[in-house]
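Entry:
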Amino acid sequence: EEKDKAESRTIFKRLHNLDQNVAQVETAIRCGDGQVRTISWSHTRLKDEGGVNSTILSVGLDLSGTREAEQKLAWLADHDELTGLYNRRRFQEEVSQAIEDASRNSLTGALLYLDLDKFKYVNDTSGHQAGDHVLKVIADKLKGSLSSRDVVARIGGDEFAIILYDTTADEARQRAEQLIEALGKMVIRLHDHQHRITAGIGIVLFPLQGSSVYELMANADLAMIQAKEKGHGRIHLFSEDEQAKEQMQQLVTWKHHIEQALMENRFVFHYQPILNIKDGTVSHYEALLRIVDADGTIHPPGKFIGVAEQTGLIRDIDRHVMIEGIKALADWSRRGQPATIALNLSGTIMDSVDLLPLLQQQIRDSGVDPQRIIFEVTETAAVVDLDAAQHMMREMKRLGCRFALDDFGVGLSSFSYLQNLPVDYIKIDGSFIRDIVNSRDNQLFVQALVQVARGSGRLTVAEFVEDEPTLELLRRLDVDFAQGYHIGRPAPRLLDDTSHTKVVPFPANRSQS
């Protein structure tokens, strides 16, 4: 470089004229192979025996790798490594500047939040590398569909965001529809699968519907969720309707809460004992999921499972439950507590191609006895896709695992599903147990269910057993197991008795605690 050459000549002249003894400078050197290297030079005057400055010692250190790493880090600070788009941090800076410019110039802009429909299906059927490929293709499509002035970023797993400058609500809606149409024409072939791409897009105007980065992005997220609730490939313009806004804000808040809990491993189990009514022992425990906040606040599943199902995060929770549940089972064995664990799965996981390999790997790595794993599914979840549920349950049972059909009796076709689902336990819904002592109809229902279960080789579990008269009646009705506060409340640890070898002793008349 001519500039570097001129600077070097000046430095050598100053050293030669005794104006300075040491000099340091960085220069670019082009190598014979055409590569340009960054060299840090250290020049020092050397004196001969007569004190005459006759020599200059120059030492060069190649900093090319360091400079490349620094440039890479600077780039990563602003960009998503997979797609090359701006990341969330840089996008938020762009949004802040866009709001400021629009306010100053009395203009309106739009923020578009885009979330892919059923993207987890791509990962489940074709693998995560295929999913990464799809994200890169979509990023290129978005860049090609927008003007050079528009800003597009990847702000999450399968979430993208776009800034449209100087636009109206109608123009923003039209641009969103064009994006939906462009994505809908894409067919991505991966292995043996063809994937058609659809997305939900939420639209929010600035500064009208958000004067700060946080408010604007939160409102855009709300609009995106409302778009996805309409179906695949839909758009939604943010509404100021306070009731809808409050409901959607709660949904977004819990969505982020769940994502954070998954990232920070803040899901924990509380274990509820299940009593073998005939011999008065606890034969297994149901692992009930909780979220624990940093301040120690514990949230039960009723707070977040519905949101997880709405937002698609339930599959991530299912995998977490399987992995952590089997780890807990292995830990029990190491501590001399060989109890059985019951884990809850949603119906949506039953068509996942990686569920069975994941279960096989966890059993193999942990060394647990698969016969001590019971998976609980609700009858409503199991029949979302009956064929998929039947197939997956049979494959998991071949490994030695067992199944329980939870909340039995609340559906209209409960008894017919018993013929189709390969379950080992039938958990009678608590609505039939709470007042069974005073309800002849409930007694007849439970009695009939026990007879059907006996005939098909299945065991029965009564939920919500909350007092001794109920437990005694269930014993007379020949129900096999009981679960409820009278047996034991969910707790972070198993019952305090590690002396047993097979089951945890548990007196049948233990009071609720």
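The chain is about 45% helix and 25% strand.
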